[in-house]
Amino acid sequence: MREISLVDVAGLVGQELGISEWITVDQSMINLFADATLDHQFIHVDPERAAAESPFGGTIAHGFLTLSLLSAMNFESIPKIREQTMGINYGFDRVRFMSPVKPGSRVRGRFTLADSRFRGAGMLMTTYDVTVEIENEKKPALTANWITIVQFDPKDRPEDA
């Protein structure tokens, strides 16, 4: 895994920092997500009914399933900050579900660092422009601005920050 230092982060704003490996979203994953979230809408879990009654020609993954995969995609593809003691999700802005993810599709995340700023003595807030691509599709599954907080020991804060 690549590593960077806190002092490097500001210089990376505007740059693509990582692209994850492909993740296969199969019907089993969709069904497990439906069980975990209690969202058993037929367009997700009933292939026959979804083929007959939905505009998608079959089942599709929950948008929130695709969104939730960002954690794994991020962990695998974004450089680790050496001084980081913990990472925290702060939230999302402008989440858009652009195209449905059908069972058997492969998706991957693309992360561009859009902003970073220090908050308090031991926190760095980062914003990523995120796109989840569907293999062999022109439109992405989703786009979002993902805001995270990197916690670190205040003694490690760069002097000029």
TrEMBL record:
InterPro entries recorded: HotDog_dom_sf, MaoC-like_dom, NodN-like
**Which intervals hold domain MaoC-like?**
12-126
* CDD domains found in the cross-reference section: NodN (cd03450)
Q: Which Pfam families does the entry mention?
A: MaoC_dehydratas (PF01575)
UniProt xrefs under PANTHER family: MAOC-LIKE DEHYDRATASE DOMAIN-CONTAINING PROTEIN
Protein name (database record): Acyl dehydratase
Top-rank lineage group of the source organism? Bacteria
